[in-house]
């Protein structure tokens, strides 16, 4: 069916970009159903022409639009062309309460004239206008600065098919690959396995690299030419991102490499960073495939924020970098012991928690930390569109501190110096960084064999049930461990539980942690501190320490935060 099409009003154009369009099209499946479609700067409005005014009108906000494509079917007898817009608005769930993003496609047939080429050009004009308008309507937080996005963005996606329930490949092909295609994002797919394959899907090229050994991703990003990609995206649990970050910081050009934007898509059991990224958008809580869809949406929108990293020193003098957490005691035990229940997905942590509660242990150790300055919300968080802005650097917004030598007694918190931004913070004189050591220097830490600096706080207790240092908001999809945390707040959120807590009280603590209420229940055994660095010295002969969910060598450990040195694809 032919349809009249109004040309755009030249007065409603800015810099050559159409700000308003109106047209009448038929339904893609039923030519007898016609729609009026209008496009503004912020919305696509659709209404059946046969409807009464104001009836059956549907408005789609372009902030929820992932992309739009124009195409022609292979039927030579059909002179029409089509354009399909892909939206992911928040909608109420069918069964449970609450809201989550859900995919909605709007497809229209364009048949202005009997010339197929003219119809296709008109469909392409609409698709281009919708794409351009949706880019300008990327969801924004008021306290974040944005830069123009580079399109298309070249993305390498790394997938571990063994993570979680072993369904990462199905999750990619079933949900993420279509979203990348809808958003017209070219990508390279790296999958841990055993062969090399080149393929194409909907004109989107991808490379399939399969490996079998642990740390393959770490080795790959340490040696690869990063100029080929604008971002690295991980579809796995948190462990694969741990490999990627440490591989980047082992490069000779680590200062430039660590600025490569990193994306996380939940494909493991814990998916803590993915849950944190979703939380930072201030959207309603989601889990499972809804979380995957939310993170896929944020990935395709392509906003980049800063990400804190924490350098962790182990007893063997090895230094690793963490983005998520360090745990000792109950939490570490649950993480390690629940590995055998990996096939049940996130439920493994509930099973592990109940089993560990049945044989609750107390651990002996010493804990000390450097308290953080009083917290003042900042409005200067860097957020750019892919790729990161040319003026950003690993040291951007870093604190330049006066060095002080303290002779005050242990536990004194007053021996501090003020940096150039009038924030009280203390650094100490450190030995020169080894020539072969990559990554930022640690200005807040003494050698592990030396006493902690005098201006640190030493915890008097030596009997603990757990010590947990959080660097993001979530410890798992359903464990909101650090409600006040942000990706780039520059803090370590230190929690510890002293001995003497009952099993019921500890269970209550973790049950309320699902919604972040554990800090408000007044548990006398729970202590929470916001710190810049800490040291933990286990005295119990046996135990486990985990970093980002990965077990590390057991022994003395210390860490300090490096504010905003990495880049995270977020919202």
From TrEMBL:
Task: Please provide one cellular component term from the Gene Ontology annotations of this protein.
Answer: cytoplasm
Spell out the SMART domains in the cross-references: DAGKc
Please list the GO biological process terms of this entry.
cellular response to growth factor stimulus; negative regulation of apoptotic process; sphingosine biosynthetic process
What's one GO MF term for it? Answer: lipid kinase activity
| Listed Pfam families | DAGK_cat
- Give the DAGKc domain ranges: 150-316
Q: Where is the composition biased (Polar residues)?
A: 386-396
Q: Where is the composition biased (Low complexity)?
A: 403-418
Q: Where is this region: Disordered?
A: 386-418
Highest rank taxon of the organism:
Eukaryota
The protein's matches in InterPro entries, at most eight in alphabetical order, are given as:
ATP-NAD_kinase_N, Diacylglycerol_kinase_cat_dom, Lipid_Phosphate_FormReg, NAD/diacylglycerol_kinase_sf
What protein am I looking at? Answer: DAGKc domain-containing protein
Q: Where is the organism placed in the taxonomic lineage, from the top?
A: Eukaryota, Metazoa, Chordata, Craniata, Vertebrata
């Amino acid at each position: 069916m032919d349809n009249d099409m109004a040309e755009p009003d030249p007065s409603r154009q800015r810099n050559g970009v159409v700000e308003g369009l109106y047209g009448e099209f038929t339904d893609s499946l039923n030519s007898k159903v016609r729609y009026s479609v209008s496009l503004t700067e912020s919305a696509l409005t659709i209404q059946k022409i046969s409807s009464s005014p104001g009836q059956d009108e549907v408005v789609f906000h372009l902030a929820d639009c992932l992309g739009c494509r124009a195409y022609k079917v292979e039927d030579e007898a059909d002179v029409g062309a089509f354009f399909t817009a892909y939206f992911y608005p928040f909608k109420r769930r069918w069964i449970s309460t609450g809201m989550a993003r859900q995919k909605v496609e709007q497809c229209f047939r364009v048949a202005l004239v009997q010339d197929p080429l003219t119809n296709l050009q008109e469909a392409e004009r609409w698709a281009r206008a919708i794409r351009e308008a949706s880019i300008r309507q990327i969801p924004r937080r008021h306290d974040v600065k944005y830069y123009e996005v580079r399109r298309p963005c070249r993305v390498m996606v790394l997938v571990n098919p063994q993570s979680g329930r072993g369904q990462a490949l199905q999750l990619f092909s079933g949900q993420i690959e279509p979203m990348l295609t809808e958003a017209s994002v070219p990508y390279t797919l790296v999958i841990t396995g055993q062969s090399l394959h080149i393929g194409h899907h909907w004109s989107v090229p991808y490379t399939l690299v399969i490996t079998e050994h642990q740390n393959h991703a770490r080795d790959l990003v340490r040696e690869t030419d990063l100029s080929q990609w604008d971002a690295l995206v991980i579809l796995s649990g948190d462990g694969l991102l741990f490999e990627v970050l440490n591989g980047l910081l082992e490069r000779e050009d680590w200062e430039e490499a660590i600025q490569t934007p990193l994306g996380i898509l939940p494909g493991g059991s814990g998916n803590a960073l993915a849950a944190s990224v979703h939380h930072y958008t201030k959207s309603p809580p989601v889990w499972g495939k809804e979380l995957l869809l939310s993170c896929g949406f944020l990935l395709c929108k392509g906003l980049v924020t800063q990400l804190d990293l924490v350098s962790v020193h182990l007893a063997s003098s090895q230094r690793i970098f963490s983005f998520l957490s360090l745990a000792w005691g109950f939490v570490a035990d649950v993480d390690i012991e629940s590995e055998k229940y990996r096939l049940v997905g996130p439920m493994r942590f509930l099973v592990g928690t109940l089993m560990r509660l049945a044989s609750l242990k107390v651990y002996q150790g010493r804990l000390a930390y450097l308290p953080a300055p009083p917290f003042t919300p900042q409005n200067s968080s860097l957020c750019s569109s892919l790729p990161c802005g040319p003026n950003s650097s690993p040291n951007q917004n870093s604190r330049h501190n006066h060095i002080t030598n303290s002779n005050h007694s242990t536990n004194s918190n007053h021996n501090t110096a003020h940096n150039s931004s009038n924030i009280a913070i203390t650094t100490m004189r450190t030995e020169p960084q080894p020539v072969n050591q990559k990554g930022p220097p640690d200005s807040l830490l003494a050698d592990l064999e030396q006493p902690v600096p005098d201006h640190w706080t030493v915890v008097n207790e030596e009997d603990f049930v757990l010590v947990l240092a959080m660097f993001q908001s979530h410890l798992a999809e359903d464990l909101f461990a650090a409600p006040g945390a942000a990706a780039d707040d520059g803090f370590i959120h230190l929690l510890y539980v002293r001995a003497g807590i009952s099993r019921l009280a500890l269970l209550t603590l973790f049950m309320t942690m699902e919604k972040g209420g554990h800090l408000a229940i007044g548990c006398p055994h729970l202590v929470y501190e916001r710190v810049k660095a800490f040291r933990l010295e286990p005295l119990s002969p046996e135990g486990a320490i985990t970093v980002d969910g990965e077990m590390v060598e057991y022994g003395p450990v210390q860490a300090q935060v490096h504010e905003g040195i990495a880049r995270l694809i977020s919202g």
